Amino acid sequence: MAGGARDGGEDGNTTTATTKVPSPLVGMFRYADRADAALMAVGTVAAVANGMSEPLMTVVFSSVIECFGTGDDATVLHRVSKKKEIP
């Protein structure tokens, strides 16, 4: 091959691949403005609410199931509708 710079040819010069260094976490937010910060805050709150929904539904569902397991059939509907607050 002519020019041999890439393959370590006759002049001995070789090109090296540049390695990409990952940027620090703070560097990703260098150009964020107030609107971006507000959107990230809203996203964080929404993610926390989404993560809490399944455990809270487990507590509510267990409370409703507990009503079915105790007492007679005549009062089950009354006790289920009464379970509006979490114990």
UniProtKB/TrEMBL annotation:
Keyword Transmembrane helix annotated: yes
Keyword Lipid metabolism: no
Transmembrane region(s): none
InterPro entries to which the protein is assigned, alphabetical: ABC1_TM_sf
Domain of life: Eukaryota
Region (Disordered): 1-21
Keywords associated with the record: Membrane, Transmembrane, Transmembrane helix
GO molecular function: ATP binding
A GO-annotated cellular component: membrane
Record's signal peptide: none
Compositional bias of kind Polar residues: 12-21
Protein name: ABC transmembrane type-1 domain-containing protein
